[in-house]
Amino acid sequence: MSNKHLSNDLNFINSYGERFSVTSMLDAMRAYMECDPERDYEIVIGTDSRAGERDVQFVTSVVFRRVGNGGIYFYARTE
After folding, report:
1. Is the pTM of this model over 0.70?
2. What pLDDT digit, counting tens, does each position of 5-18 carry?
3. What is the DSSP letter of 6?
4. For 28-64, how does the pLDDT look when each residue is reduced to its tens digit (9 = 90+)?
5. Which of 7, 13, 37, 48 yields a CA-CA distance of 20 to 30 A from 26?
6. Strand partners, 74
7. How far apart are the C-alpha atoms of 44 and 28, rounded to whole Å?
8. What contacts 52, CB < 8 A, 6 or more positions away?
C-alpha cells in the first residue's frame, strides 16, 4: 500500500463533482467560512473501507458544517 492517503495528490470530490487537492479543499473551506465568519463551524472527518477479493477500497469524507445552516462536503476514494 502506498502513502497516497497522506499526499496532496489525493483528489477530493465535492457535491458538484469538482476535484480538489488537499490544499484546494482547505482553501474552499476557508472561503466558505469567510462568507459568514460569525457563524459556528464543525469539521467531521470519516473513513470506511470495503475489502474485495484482490484489493481494499477506502472512502474518506470531510464535512465542513455551518452549524444550523447546511455545509459543504468532499470525499476521496482510494484502493
Report:
1. yes
2. 445 567 999 999 99
3. G
4. 999 999 999 999 999 999 999 999 889 999 999 999 9
5. 48
6. 14, 62
7. 15
8. none
Distance CA 24, CA 11 (A): 10
Q: If you search the block for the grid coordinates 476521496, which residue do you land on?
A: 76
> 61-69 long-range CB contacts below 8 Å, 24 or more apart?
62/12, 62/25, 64/29, 64/32, 64/33, 65/41, 66/32, 66/33, 66/36, 66/39, 66/40, 66/41, 67/39, 67/40, 67/41, 67/42, 68/39, 68/40, 69/36, 69/39
DSSP string, 30-51: HHHHHTSTTS-EEEEEEEEEEE
| In the block, residue with C-alpha cell 473551506 | 29
Number of neighbouring beta carbons within 10 Å of residue 10: 16
On whether the CB atoms of residues 18 and 25 are closer than 8 A, the answer is no
